[in-house]
Design brief:
By secondary structure, this protein is an all-alpha fold. 80% of the residues lie in helices and 0% in strands.
Length: 156
């Protein structure tokens, strides 16, 4: 590689990383809102909504996932789920900050975390083809490509 093509560490030279940073921060905000909503609501409305869905669709609540959900929705599980949501939000915010500041570790974090979802996204695309599954797959693929490209440029 020629010296004139070396990696530019100036954050202004990386609008793609900034776009991904905004996307990751938005995911973090949504996770934080969801976690807050769980804590504010608590288990009683969740149980009520589950039973309303069971009744509306005339489902059998004694078997499979519905039985498990009925038994699992309690204060402890709601707190645990909210805590996981807050941890996920913190991870997305840290990644967003790092990408905004053009940090190598953030490109690694984002590339790996998006790549982990690609097999699941591909499966969803095959099993449930449509605009939503296609969009999710393409967006995650684009994030992996952009961050992988950034890492390759850094290594030259």
């Amino acid at each position: 590689m020629h010296a004139g093509h070396s990696y530019n560490p100036d954050p202004h030279a990386h609008p793609g990383l900034h776009a991904i940073a905004i996307f990751e921060a938005a995911k973090g905000l949504l996770a934080l809102l969801a976690a807050s909503g769980l804590e504010i609501l608590g288990p009683a409305p969740l149980q009520r909504w589950l039973h309303e869905l069971i009744n509306h669709f005339q489902l059998d609540p004694k078997h499979g996932l519905l039985d498990w959900l009925s038994r699992t929705i309690n204060p402890d599980s709601v707190h645990l789920t909210a805590a996981i949501g807050v941890a996920y939000a913190a991870l997305r915010f840290v990644e967003a900050w790092g990408l905004w500041r053009v940090r190598r570790w953030a490109s690694w974090l984002g590339c790996i975390s998006a790549a982990v979802y690609l097999p699941l996204d591909g499966y969803a695309l095959i099993m449930h083809p449509g605009w939503l599954s296609t969009t999710v797959f393409v967006v995650n693929l684009a994030v992996v490509w952009a961050l992988g490209r950034d890492l390759l440029k850094r290594s030259r």
